[in-house]
Amino acid sequence: MPRSASPAVSQAVAILRHLSRHPEPVPAAAVARDLGLPRSTAYKLLSLLADEGLVTHLPEERRYGLGVGVFELGSAYPRQAGLARVSRPVLARLVDETTHNVHLAVLHGRDVLYVLEERAPGRPMLVTDVGVRLPSQLTASGLAMLAALPAAQVRALFPDRDAFVTRRGTGPRSLTALRSELAAVRTRGFALEDGTVTEGLASVAAAVVDHGGHPVASVAITYPRHVEASVQPLADAARRAAQELTRRLGGHRKEHP
């Protein structure tokens, strides 16, 4: 369809691209001004995009940011583009190196979706099988990716306490608690989950990022708590694998507040 035949579509795409270039949500008036749109048009398109989950409205701040739907679309792309195929040999080598189960997950809204698992001989089966979804803030895989997102996008994913799910009474229950955990992930350089998903098992994970520095997946190693005296060697192995996948995808890391 010629671009001139669908101005509303072109304008909606321009709004999404404009929001993606800002680290924080943007006032509607600024969107209209920067894109040369009538204010009424900007407000209408922002409202329609919010209805579809592609934009999040923060009414207290009178600002708009990217919504959960954008992350769902973004996480679908690497899966369709062969992320699992690219990752499988890297994960297989990681299993050989660590002798533990390894899996690859992507963000899907506020959840993580497990798309690939490589099992080590003699290790127990995990609940994080391919196709399983779990709340991202409860898993090492999810925390690793959330820690690589800008603060505004984390806030869009978890706008209030109703967005938080706990498991056996564990896990962050507020945005403040989640931000504290994500700060710890960035300081350590890896995410850690200890018994939250499955009692007796722990996981370490590191994020895989694209050319824009946004997380497209995470590599996690799950191990029995009694086996490992120190998590650091496993964390280092997970980070090396994530860095290798980042390199293969042409990505690079950037710092987020």
UniProtKB/TrEMBL annotation:
Q: Where is the IclR-ED domain?
A: 69-251
Q: Name one Pfam family in it.
A: IclR_C
Q: Which SMART domains match?
A: HTH_ICLR
Listed SUPFAM superfamilies = GAF domain-like (SSF55781), Winged helix' DNA-binding domain (SSF46785)
Where in this chain does the record put each HTH iclR-type domain?
A: 6-68
Transcription regulation is among the record's keywords: yes
Keywords, in A-Z order: DNA-binding, Transcription, Transcription regulation
Species the sequence originates in: Arsenicicoccus cauae
Q: Please give the name of this protein.
A: Helix-turn-helix domain-containing protein
Checking InterPro entries in the record gives:
GAF-like_dom_sf, HTH_MetabolicPath_Reg, Tscrpt_reg_IclR_C, Tscrpt_reg_IclR_N, WH-like_DNA-bd_sf, WH_DNA-bd_sf
Task: Set out the biological process GO terms recorded for this chain's protein.
Answer: negative regulation of DNA-templated transcription
Q: Name one GO molecular function term.
A: DNA-binding transcription factor activity
